[in-house]
Design a protein that fits this description.
By secondary structure, this protein is of the alpha/beta class. The chain is built from 7 helices and 11 strands.
Length: 250
């Protein structure tokens, strides 16, 4: 089934219609949920849909018509679900015959994209988020970047204490936003980026620093109020369910 790319803002030649989803992680911190399924197949409580189902629906709503899902841990469970689900876009799966590292795995999956000469999105398989990929693609194009990564400002999981210059406690702040931006695990890549990826190894230690030195790597801060959460632990699942309930509450 093909996504309806006519919804929302009109697509231009530079807005990607293809994406890679990196879904091969073992998710050891999510056990026992990941004892019998890969991390992207863990369901968000209250939705009845696994993480990857939310991701694919989001990608399709942003104009993506083709996705390559890179599988790893318990790949057959994910592949079986993808084959049986009523998906809003075309999906191809790939499985690494041997570990290639994050950069090598991304390059291996990108080779299966239908249009090697066009830009593409990529996302980590444990991210649950909603923001405009079209705006991110426009940001990427305006800066003539080879790669653009989304930047999030997550909340610190501990309470913070505010003091004055004399050491008096002024206030207690529950889970304040981090003062630092982090890599949100969502990307826009120009066609030439694929050739810059290592065949093996981690692109975040090789390709990204190289592009940063040449000012060809851009960072797109998530818009104010955009939802973003990395699902790493059972607590993340619980928090995601609470946040979903708050969003749907009348």
């Amino acid at each position: 089934m093909t996504a309806d790319s006519s919804a929302g803002a009109p697509l231009t030649a530079e807005q990607p219609t293809q994406a890679v989803v990196l879904a091969g992680g073992q998710g050891s911190r999510l056990r026992p949920y990941t004892d019998d399924r890969p991390k992207p197949m863990v369901e968000i409580p209250g939705t009845g849909v696994p993480i990857i189902g939310h991701q694919l629906a989001w990608l399709a709503s942003e104009g993506v018509t083709d996705a390559v899902v890179s599988c790893g841990h318990l790949a057959e469970v994910l592949q079986d679900w993808l084959e049986s689900a009523d998906l809003p876009l075309r999906v191809t799966t790939v499985v690494e015959k041997e570990p290639l590292g994050r950069g090598g795995g991304l390059k291996y999956a990108a080779a299966r994209l239908p249009h090697a000469d066009r830009p593409w999105y990529a996302t980590n398989g444990d991210i649950w988020t909603r923001f405009s990929l079209r705006e991110m693609a426009a940001f990427h194009q305006e800066r003539a970047a080879v790669a653009t990564l989304a930047l999030a400002r997550p909340r610190i999981p501990w309470g913070a204490v505010e003091t004055n210059e004399f050491g008096h406690v002024l206030d207690f702040i529950e889970s304040p936003p981090s003062p630092y931006l982090i890599n949100a695990g969502v990307y826009v890549f120009s066609p030439e980026f694929t050739a810059l990826l290592p065949d093996r190894g981690d692109h975040e230690r090789t390709t990204f620093p190289h592009l940063a030195r040449e000012r060809r790597l851009a960072g797109f801060p998530l818009p104010q109020g955009a939802y973003w959460r990395a699902i790493d632990t059972a607590k993340d699942l619980t928090e995601a369910a609470k946040e979903l309930a708050m969003q749907t509450r009348p």
